Structures are given as C-alpha cells and as structure tokens.
Amino acid sequence: MNNTFLAMAYFHLLGPVDAVWIENMNTVLDDNKKLCLMSGEIIQMSAQMNLIFEPEDLEQASPATVSRCGMIYMDPNQLGWRVFKDSYIQYELPVSLPKEARELINDLFEWMVDPCLEYLRAHCKFQLSTSPIHLTFSLMRLYTCLMDEIAGSGTTGPDGKAYAELNANTMLLWLQGLFLFSLIWGLAGTITGDSRRKFDTFLRDFLTGALEEYPKPKSIKFSKANIFPERNTCFDFYFEKKAAGHWREWPDMIAREDLAIPEGVKVVDVIIQTDETARQAFFLETFVSHNVPLLLVGPTGTGKSAINNYFLVRLPKE
C-alpha cells in the first residue's frame, strides 16, 4: 500500500454484502480511504486503490454503504444469456466431459436457444412471466440434473450407485436428447396448453430443417431416436437413458405397483396415476435429489398439494 505506487489497483469483492462486515468498510469508502481493523490499527489506502463489490442484490446493504458507492446496473436484455452459458460450459459441466462434448453443447445452445426464446416471446402465453435469462437458467439446471450417468460414466457415485461405462457415440447421443428435453421443459415448461401445441409445431419444423433461416450446425447429428415421435406433442414424452437413448411416453414411467389401490385407504388419499402425475413425480424426484428448488404452478384443485404429499411420504425415512 505504498503511496508511491502509481498504477490503479482494484479489490474485487464477489458475493453477498453482509450487513456486519460491510459497516467496517465505510471508512474505506470515504474520501480519506482509511481501513480501520478490529485490532485498532489504521491503514491508509492510496488514492490509486479502489473497491469493486459484485453482489447478487443489495438486500443486506445499508443506505450508508450504498451512498458511498457508485452503481453499475447490468440490464438483463443487454446482458443476455450467453455470458451465463459460457460460464456454465466452462465451470459447471462435469469435468469428465471431453472437449468434443463441450463443443457440441455450445453448438446446441447457439443453434436452438435464441430461436426458441423469440418464438415463445412472440407467439406463446406464459402462466408465469419470466425473463429469458431465467428460462435459460432453468434449462441449465435441468440439463445438469439429468447428467448423472454421463458424469459418473464407469464410476461409482457418492450414493454407492455404479454407473455403466458409456462410449463416445452414446454419450453424444444422450447429450443431444437430454438437451432437447431440457430445452422443452426449461424454456417452455410454463406456457399454456394452447401455446404448447404451437411450440410443438415450431420445434418439429425447426428440428427437421423446415425453417431455412436456422441451418443446423454440422456437429449436431440428430438421429431418429433423438427426436420425439410424431404422435402427440413434445411435452408428452421423456428421454430414457438406455442404449442409444429413446423417447417414451410419461405413463410408461408408472410402476405396476403404483397402479394398485391399497386396501383400507381413504378415498381422499387415493392418487390415480396419470401422465400428469408421472410428469410431476419425475421433476420432483429429479430436482429434490439434486437440491434444486422448484415451483409447481397451476389452478386450484388440480392436485399439486396432493401429489407433493404423495411424493414426500414415499421418501426414505433417513
């Protein structure tokens, strides 16, 4: 902290602004720039030294702290989702993924996300209004949660579950299918029923090359198994991670024992298994097992609480 040091120096503090320690920084933020330590020592900072705080929000910051700082606000529309995508691919994807797989995931994002977001904004109605960045975050969270078998290929997970070794071709096919599934539910999971049919038509035309303005990158090779069947809509299928991967309807996920009604059970406690209950149970199990919060949205009386309670009572007692 020599005052003869002429070059500008920046202390970049990334994280929440804690109300306790940030108050001790107020003297540093004043014009005299004096750092007062708990020991009673006072350190004079030079005029070339600056502090940069990068918090998620200012919930814990006091007016005294905020008034001593200049503020740079990044508008979500100007910031865009690509900076988060770059960080996601570099830091949050499984470290075991090879370079080829990471390049494929980047190409999938670049090819599909913008056209889908634009179509959803212009032609679809959301039950819950969200920003494009939030929708892209939802895609990333779901995609990460579905990669357990890929991330642990040939190893044993922390829960003791052994994962089979995947060859390179199978891994790439799974990554494509899982990305498509994550895109459907991450970006379009909260649109209305009529909008789902519109989005299904758009997505099928997009994947089959009917929309010439969105040419498919050479690295992406969708096989027939990677694209959901023509019957019903894309929301009626889930991607099963077996063999080369294929799409199955939600009722196929319901176990035979779940179809039986236990003796003596009260009528109000009976859950009739349908494709909708299978969908909700899948997302509940996927997100809860990965410590990801989720919100079920829907009209009153559609079974949200009943399905949640049914899922919770079936969790391991430990």
From TrEMBL:
Record's signal peptide: 1-19
Alphabetized UniProt keyword annotations: Membrane, Signal, Transmembrane, Transmembrane helix
All residue ranges annotated as the Dynein heavy chain AAA 5 extension domain in the record: 105-251
Cellular component annotations (GO), alphabetically ordered: dynein complex
Pfam families documented for this protein: AAA_7 (PF12775), Dynein_AAA_lid (PF17852)
Membrane spanning residue stretches: 171-188
GO process terms (BP): microtubule-based movement
GO molecular-function term, one example from the UniProt record: dynein intermediate chain binding
Name this polypeptide is given: Dynein heavy chain AAA 5 extension domain-containing protein
Lineage: Eukaryota, Metazoa, Spiralia, Gnathifera, Rotifera
